[in-house]
Write a structure and sequence with these properties.
Elements lengths: L2 H27 L6 H17 L1 H12 L3 H27 L2 E3 L8 E9 L2 E5 L7 H12 L3 E5 L5 H14 L5 E3 L4 H8 L5 E5 L2 H13 L4 E4 L5 E4 L5 H13 L11 E5 L3 H15 L13 H10 L3 E5 L3 E2 L4 E2 L2 E5 L5 H4 L6 E7 L2 H9 L6 E5 L3 H10 L4 E4 L4 H4 L12 E2 L5 H6 L1 E9 L12 H14 L4
Bound molecules: nicotinamide-adenine-dinucleotide.
């Protein structure tokens, strides 16, 4: 294709997207999304349709990622259904106005806050949990009464096409439009004007999204990644900890934004940790790798395989280029400067770093960008408190991994480089709603604030003195 054709195609694409945006703006302006009972009805219809397609969802995830059904159920389907159930049950309560007490200064009056939808939302999602990370924010945006353009990941074509099919069965395009395509489409979408942008993906693309949003002062949620440490205390149950961590690296082949990225262990616990990590990983893969998620593509496979050369492998290291699988691998990194210890691993490789004092471990974490989650393993409450109060991270998970994400009643999001904003359950509704403050003046109209000021000023001051002795 010559350059001219590309440009012409882009013009077509921009026009097409502009038409979708306009249709959604018109739909929103009609007030159709404001009726709460209608929103609930639609969420119920979406749940019914998801249940109808449950097996097709697992099949699509198997084709895209070789994701086993059990992982798809726990990591994608169940959470999405939970979001729907919560929205259906709580939407009326969340949508109510909340009374705010009014001070005497504004007597007589009433005040309250009320959530209102932003309008048109753009959601861009990644490939690692292609179903949940697309549907979960979408449910929040719809519960809050917005229209939505969604762009699922191009790297999971089967799941993304199925998402489009499912949503088209429930929502007209003027309310939910699923756009299928890659980076070029994403960039074309970002050139439009929205009332809110919700992005899940890498830090680099997060910056691009924020720049595009800044042009129109559009508010954003950025759900990004980073390196999530596991900090282990002397009092930890090492066997149980190793089992959780091995599972966190096996589940989705470590391709989770909340997966343990590296271990911070007291030196005397390393041998025991390696023993139990190996024991449990051997058990997980004893029936072969048929039930083990593959690395999403060749490029990521080569990136992760490259990490294996950046230190001494303690356990694992088995790779298959044909099936794009790498077994969970423990490694002692050659330095802190190598990409293994600088970049988000986002795969089943786990470097071990040892520490002498807790302070040293905390400083190691604080020297780096704020993580999405810090996993703390210990039975010592003082240790847990010290780590969580002296570090900053989007989330903390104590004596386990990943499950803080699975608990959809907990707001989820990053801080600093790991993201901006939160979602899940009520937090999603709040994210996609503007909280409008309302002041309602009542009668009688008191004369104190009107000029000429002299008349009531001293009286007002005396009155204020009676209420507040300090001024
Ligand atoms: P990515 O940033 O490459 O892609 C995410 C989305 O952005 C995709 O839909 C893609 O088409 C689009 N995109 C890619 N490049 C773009 C560009 N130059 N301009 C505009 N749009 C572009 O991320 P990914 O590889 O799909 O996902 C992995 C990353 O996502 C990891 O960093 C991971 O930590 C992060 N992640 C975060 C969370 C979270 O909840 N915080 C969840 C899952 C994944």
């Amino acid at each position: 294709m010559c350059d001219k054709e590309v440009i012409l195609n882009n013009v077509d694409l921009f026009e097409e997207l502009e038409n979708v945006r306009q249709a959604q703006k018109d739909f929103f302006r009609s007030g159709a999304t404001l009726i709460i009972t209608k929103r609930i009805e639609k969420l119920k219809a979406l749940k019914k349709t998801l249940v109808k397609y449950e097996q097709a969802i697992y099949a699509a995830l198997k084709m895209d990622l070789n994701k086993p059904e059990q992982e798809a159920f726990l990591g994608e389907f169940m959470g999405t259904i939970h979001e729907l159930d919560t929205g259906i049950l709580k939407l009326k309560k969340w949508s109510r106005k909340k009374r705010v007490a009014s001070p005497l200064m504004v007597f007589p009056s009433k005040a309250w806050t009320v959530p209102e939808p932003y309008g048109q939302v753009l959601i861009i999602s990644p490939w690692n949990y292609p179903f949940d990370l697309c549907l979960s924010p979408l449910i929040g945006a719809l519960a809050a009464g917005n229209t939505v353009i969604v762009k699922p990941s191009e790297l999971t074509p089967n799941t993304s096409a199925l998402i489009k099919k499912i949503l088209a069965e429930v929502y007209e395009e003027a309310q939910v439009s699923v756009q299928l395509g890659g980076v070029e489409l994403s960039q074309a979408l970002l050139q439009g004007r929205y009332d809110y942008i919700f992005f899940t993906g890498s830090v680099e693309v997060g910056r691009i999204v924020m720049q595009a949003a800044a042009k129109h002062l559009t508010p954003v949620t950025l759900e990004l990644g980073g390196k999530c440490p596991v900090i282990v205390g002397e009092q930890a149950d090492v066997k149980q900890m190793a089992k959780s961590v091995a599972w966190g690296k096996y589940f989705n082949a470590g391709q989770s934004c909340v997966a343990p990225d590296y271990m911070l262990l007291p030196a005397n616990l390393v041998d025991e940790f390696v023993k139990w990590f190996s024991h449990y990983t051997d058990a997980f893969i004893k029936n072969g790798l048929g039930e083990y998620t593959r690395i999403i593509n060749q490029k990521h496979y080569e990136r992760i395989e490259g990490y294996l050369k950046q230190g001494d492998i303690i356990y694992g290291g088995l790779c298959s280029k044909e099936t794009l699988q790498i077994v969970p691998t423990l490694i002692r990194p050659e330095s802190w400067e190598c990409s293994l210890m600088q970049d988000e691993i986002f795969g089943p490789v786990l470097p071990i770093v040892t520490y002498q004092t807790l302070n040293e471990a905390i400083e190691f974490v604080k020297d780096r960008e704020k993580p999405l989650v810090i996993n703390i393993f210990s039975s010592d409450r003082k240790f847990i408190k010290q780590v969580s109060s002296q570090t900053s991270s989007g989330n903390v998970c104590i004596n386990d991994v990943l499950l803080n994400y699975v608990n959809k009643n907990l707001p989820f999001g990053g801080v600093g480089n790991s993201g901006i904003g939160q979602y899940h359950g009520k937090a999603s509704f709040e994210t996609f709603s503007h909280t409008k403050s309302v002041h309602h003046k009542k009668t009688p109209d008191l004369p104190f604030r009107y000029p000429p000021y002299e008349k009531y000023y001293q009286l007002l001051r005396r009155f204020k003195k009676l209420l507040n002795k300090n001024i």
